[in-house]
Amino acid sequence: MDRTNTPCGLDVALTVIGGKWKPLILYHVQSGPTRFSEIRRRVGGISEKILIQQLRDLVKLKVLLRHDHHCVPPVVDYALTPFGETLVKALAPLCAWGTANRDVVGSMVASASSATERGI
Amino acid sequence: MDRTNTPCGLDVALTVIGGKWKPLILYHVQSGPTRFSEIRRRVGGISEKILIQQLRDLVKLKVLLRHDHHCVPPVVDYALTPFGETLVKALAPLCAWGTANRDVVGSMVASASSATERGI
DNA sequence: GCTAGAACCTACTAAAAGGTAAGTGTGAGA
DNA sequence: TCTCACACTTACCTTTTAGTAGGTTCTAGC
Question: Would you say residue A4 lies in a domain?
Answer without folding.
Answer: no
